[in-house]
């Protein structure tokens, strides 16, 4: 202890306070100081209480030193045209900015990948549930069929379910077709020419016309009448015979 006091006396300099600017005070009054005074000391293991005591002590020193500096006419505010060089160069700050940007992009990519994995997992879960449901329905239907074949049951509910489901599908498709309706071209033609409607039926057969065969002509029906020859003209009369007919004619001539 005596040696420490001797060293302190050796390097102590008797200078004015404005040259030393040392202030030693306790923490300023506040809730933290009151709680500290209640416990007689600050718990060093409590981070918040310890840092708050440092903050209060620095605040008390500033409140004590500023009035003394103003009395000594020492300026305490930075001038408007004050220029201070950065501690770090622009190149280093650019590297830091790029590093922060790459880190943020990596975090965004990992977040997107996490969301995609979650969506994939959910889709897989839904798909497995649907497959399990289908397998269960199929198993129940096969069991019902087996019971019916063995004579243990006389109900055909599983066939009714299939029939109703198929009818529902047909109704759905029919509704879709009816809702679809004609296209624009068909609608324009309907508007221009009408919707057709029922024909007059002048060419329809009746029982009497079906039984009446008086106007039947066999020559005309079997392509033997003069009208058929006139339709063909000279080409029909002078038609060249086929290859096989010409071969037979040659054999006869020999």
UniProtKB/TrEMBL annotation:
Residues 115-124, 221-254 have a biased composition (Basic residues). Keywords: Coiled coil, Nucleus, Ribosome biogenesis. InterPro entries: Ebp2 (IPR008610). The keyword NADP does not apply. It holds the Pfam family Ebp2. The keyword Nucleus applies. Residues 102-114 have a biased composition (Basic and acidic residues). Residues 165-180, 211-220 have a biased composition (Polar residues). GO terms for cellular component: nuclear periphery; nucleolus; preribosome, large subunit precursor. GO terms for biological process: ribosomal large subunit biogenesis; rRNA processing. It is found in: Nucleus, Nucleolus. Residues 27-48, 97-126, 156-254 are annotated as: Disordered. Signal peptide: none annotated. Required for the processing of the 27S pre-rRNA. PANTHER family: RRNA PROCESSING PROTEIN EBNA1-BINDING PROTEIN-RELATED, RRNA-PROCESSING PROTEIN EBP2-RELATED. Belongs to the EBP2 family. This is EBP2 protein. The gene is Ebna1bp2.
